[in-house]
Write a structure and sequence with these properties.
Elements: E1 4-8, H1 13-26, E2 29-36, H2 43-53, E3 57-62, H3 64-78, H4 89-108, E4 112-114, H5 123-134, E5 139-141, H6 143-146, H7 151-160, E6 174-178, E7 181-185, E8 215-222, E9 225-229, E10 232-233, H8 236-249, E11 254-260, E12 266-272, H9 274-290, H10 293-311, H11 318-330, E13 336-343, E14 346-353, H12 361-364, H13 377-384, H14 386-395
Parallel strand pairs: 1-2, 1-4, 2-3, 4-5
Antiparallel strand pairs: 6-7, 7-12, 8-9, 8-13, 9-10, 11-12, 13-14
């Protein structure tokens, strides 16, 4: 296959090797595309590295604002957390990357797109399903899935071809970062019995557990979206940067998770998500004040479904759009302020208020000012318990009722 291929380029081991490999094996001109979603890297160096390795063209796309506003905050309003632990940091960035790959392919006249995902991971699913949904005529190439090299062999290939990579046999972690979180895998972490060594943590400082005084912050939300920190308006990107710093200082947001990948295997993953941990907790606390019992109950099911869709790479589907429309509607009155205590690895909600709060002090208090009509409770309980009393009278203590599992007398 000749022509151009647009490669999702991170500057890491697999994508750096992929530039050389695509030219050798496919004879294609490589356009390397690096998407900035808060990776905290020197993109000038990464761009030059792509060119030095052999890319015909290297492009860096600043997508931080789009990532936060269109993907992260949409998931935050959904309370989306995969299997109750993972805030979906990497998963949320992949549909955005797929969209940008397609856009660049159209502009550059490319016949194909490529990525550095292996055949074991979730990201191959997310990127390829996304690209297929947006541009089904594009060919997709997955070098790391095709070349059949082990990680050690890939490092050797890079060394033989003069490709500098930030991974060595001594430090073999695979790391992915964006504003919503940092994921770490490989190396000693592949044995779920091993305690994570200190060197895996980058954002959450071990010394944070020794800090003697907590920090308190106030987060302002407008219709489910965080818009203020300590009473001052702040943009989404700046808010996440600040919270990652503040909460990370207290070692908040460490996650050690054995999760079920979409491809059918279990994988031990480590995550650091200081800002996500704080915001998800604060958002749920505000929802508990502003949404009814039935809304909260139903939305918990929607949150799980939404998280699964994102994790499984089904962002560009009608089902996700349907759920997103419901979620957006639930957020109309989720406006207010939440006070959070940051201390010794925990983000604890210690206060919340809203102009749309369903909490009525006059109904809740046991002190002076109580206006709850307690005399109405007896009648309420009588009606509420009517079905269970009726069933008990009809089906309990009767000799003509056979025991469970009894043989049908009629054969």
């Amino acid at each position: 296959m000749s022509g151009r291929v647009v490669l999702a380029y991170s500057g890491g081991l697999d994508t750096s090797v992929a530039i050389k490999w695509l030219a050798q094996e496919y004879g294609m001109e490589v356009v390397a595309v690096t998407v900035d979603v808060g990776n905290e890297r020197d993109f000038t160096v990464i761009k030059q590295k792509a060119l030095d390795v052999g890319a015909e063209k290297a492009i860096v796309v600043d997508a931080k604002s789009r990532f936060v506003n269109e993907f992260v905050f949409t998931a935050l309003k959904a309370d989306a957390v995969y299997q109750g632990q993972y805030p979906l940091a990497t998963a949320l960035s992949r549909p955005l990357i797929a969209s940008i790959l397609v856009d660049v392919a159209v502009v550059e006249g490319a016949r194909a797109v490529a990525h550095g995902c292996t055949g074991k991971g979730n990201d191959q699913v997310r990127i390829e399903v996304g690209v297929n949904a947006l541009a089904p005529d594009l060919t997709i190439i997955a070098p790391a899935r095709e070349w059949g090299m082990t990680r050690e062999e890939t490092i050797k290939y890079a060394q033989e071809h003069g490709i500098p990579v930030p991974v060595t046999k001594k430090s073999p972690y695979s790391i992915d970062e964006n504003l919503w979180g940092r994921s770490i895998e490989c190396g000693v972490l592949e044995d779920p019995w091993n305690e994570p060594p200190d060197d895996v943590w980058g954002w959450t400082k071990g010394g944070g557990l020794k800090i003697s005084e907590p920090d308190y912050i106030e987060l302002g939300f407008y219709q489910g979206t965080p818009v203020a920190l300590d009473g001052k308006e702040i943009g989404g990107v700046d808010l996440l940067l600040k919270l990652n710093e503040l909460a990370g200082k207290h070692a908040i947001g460490r996650i050690d998770h054995v999760e079920d990948r979409r491809v059918g295997i279990k994988s031990r993953e480590l995550y650091e998500a200081p800002a996500a941990t704080v915001l998800l907790g604060a958002h749920r606390a505000l929802e508990s004040l502003c949404l009814s019992r039935d809304q909260l109950r139903f939305k918990r099911g929607v949150a799980g479904e939404y998280a699964d869709l994102v994790y499984d790479g089904l962002w560009f589907t009608a089902h996700r759009e349907n759920l997103a429309a419901y979620i957006e509607n639930t957020q109309r009155f989720v406006t207010g302020t939440v006070r959070v205590k940051l201390f010794k690895g925990s983000a604890t909600v210690v206060g919340r208020k809203s102009p749309f709060s369903l909490y009525d002090y006059g109904l809740a208090t046991y002190d002076k000012g109580d206006n709850f009509d307690q005399s109405a409770s007896a009648g309420f309980i009588h009606i509420w318990g009517l079905p269970s009393r009726t069933q008990t009278r009809a089906q309990t203590g009767r000799e003509d009722i056979p025991p469970a599992g009894a043989k049908n007398p009629r054969g």
